[in-house]
Amino acid sequence: MRTTVGIIGAGPAGLLLARLLHRAGIDSVVLESRDRAYVEHRHRAGILEQGTVDVLRAAGAGERMDREGLRHDGIELRFARRRHRIDFPALTGGRSVMVYAQTEVCKDLIALQLTEGGPLLFEAQALAVEDAADGRPRIPFRHRGRADVLECDYAVGCDGFWGVARRAFPAALSRVFERTYPYAWLGVLADVAPSHDELVYARHDRGFALLSMRSPSVSRLYLQVPADTDAGRWSEPEIWDELERRLETDDGWRLARGPLTQKSVTPMRSFVHEPMRHGRLFLAGDAAHIVPPTGAKGLNLAVGDVVTLAHALAHEKETGSSDLLDAYSATCLRRVWQAERFSCDMTTLLHSAPDATPFDVRLQQARLERIASSRAAETDLAEAYTGFPLGRRQISAR
Ligand SMILES: Cc1cc2nc3c(=O)[nH]c(=O)nc-3n(C[C@H](O)[C@H](O)[C@H](O)COP(=O)(O)OP(=O)(O)OC[C@H]3O[C@@H](n4cnc5c(N)ncnc54)[C@H](O)[C@@H]3O)c2cc1C
Predict the structure, then answer these.
(1) Residues 204, 278, 289, 297: which is the catalytic one?
(2) Catalytic one of 100, 183, 201, 328
(3) For residues 292 and 181, is the Cβ–Cβ distance under 8 A?
(4) Which InterPro entries match (predicted)?
(5) What is the mean pLDDT of residues 256-263?
(6) For ligand 1, is residue 156 a contact (CB within 6 Å)?
């Protein structure tokens, strides 16, 4: 097989990149190791920044999102049994976020790709990326048991944290920056209407809790648990009791319970691989960086990367200049490190570290009080949460 851009991975990064390239008249082939049903039902992120919403609309992939997604104008912080609302539009000049599950973003992009775009091969596992440094990249892969090779002008690793693309970077070039956290998130989906109309981030001495949602009838809830937790050890009543304790307030707020339909543990990690380009191989999304989910940034960062890359490839096609491709890694990393900073800040602001001293706990409370009492501190949080804007030219050019 031969194409202009060989894309490994059909998560949000790979699917959106293929869509943006298609709109720019650039051929691509997407290789995805899993089957379609698996990709469409993998529960992960659900908060889309304003910039992500704008990009999906401009790519012609926003119709169902606009019909079924829930626009959110704020979040609530809970601590010391009190609530404090952060009003996004008031603090950011009108910005908001959209609650629309990653599973739905992927379903919409897959449907568009299969009807309008280039080849998207499921059950096609890339084995390596070869010759990316000094020639046309080759991607050997296995498709439903049969060996093949994808030859391309550019290869893009959108294959997540465990993918193969990053391994093609020479050790002498790669720099890894990493932090692991001594806790994880036990996440559940529940068939019950959310008990609050906006996300609630709760700091509690017993640990962090998050009340989120996927639709008006499905709640998504998380509990901070120790890093090595087995989800199967938590019973339904135990999960609800613990959520209730951590989310409780003094004003009589009640948590509605319902049947749990999914339960999993997500590890917390900060990770950045630099650079994000080696010759004709580019990394995008989780293949290059991971954030702890507290700041809701993972999916949005992946979108930022592929918007930047699609714009650079279109620019090269139109002008013959590789300037923007050459700047790809540095351009993305500026945004990535802002998201890393924010995700780490939110995580340490709200979680109980097992080795926290009483001094650390008082500092955490003081940081929360500061946000609740200072418009400047609130604005800083609101700007980062709703997302640092993508270049207008990058969005509209697609
Ligand atoms: C368990 C989990 C829970 C998460 N929860 C949240 C959350 O609650 N909130 C939040 O904001 N973010 C969350 N995230 C982060 C967010 O979902 C990711 O940042 C986002 O999925 C990144 O998209 P991506 O396309 O870069 O990578 P992925 O979505 O990981 O997609 C990579 C794709 O590449 C495929 N692939 C891998 N190797 C190969 C290969 N060799 N050949 C072919 N295909 C390959 C994979 O099957 C996958 O489909 C979560 C992530 C994980 C892992």
Answers:
(1) 297
(2) 201
(3) yes
(4) FAD-bd (IPR002938), FAD/NAD-bd_sf (IPR036188), RIFMO-like (IPR050641)
(5) 96
(6) no
The residue whose CA is least distant from atom 26 of ligand 1 is 285
Structure tokens of 293? 């989910």
259 is catalytic: no
Is the Cβ atom of 13 under 6 angstroms away from ligand 1? yes
Residues 6+ apart with CB under 8 A from 320: none
> pLDDT tens-digit profile of 372-386?
999 999 999 999 999
Q: Who contacts 182 (Cβ-Cβ below 8 Å, separation ≥6)?
A: 226, 227, 353, 354, 355
Residue nearest to atom 3 of ligand 1 (CA): 44
In the chain, the amino acid numbered 120 is L
- 304, 20 contact by CB (below 8 A): no
The CATH classification of domain 2-72+100-179+268-352, taken from the options 3.40.920.10, 3.40.50.1110, 3.50.50.60, 3.40.50.11030: 3.50.50.60
Residue with the nearest Cα to atom 11 of ligand 1?
296
- Among 179, 126, 169, CA closest to 329: 169
Catalytic, 293? Answer: yes
| pLDDT band per the 50, 70, 90 thresholds, residue 354 | very high
Question: In the prediction, which pLDDT does 397 show?
Answer: 40
84 catalytic residue (yes or no): no
Q: Which of 276, 286, 309 to mutate to test the pocket of ligand 1 (most atoms within 8 A of CB)?
A: 286
Confirm whether 385 is a catalytic residue.
yes
pLDDT class of 391 with cuts at 50, 70, 90? low
- Parse the chain into domains and list their residue ranges: 2-72+100-179+268-352
Distance 4 CA to ligand 1 centre (A): 24
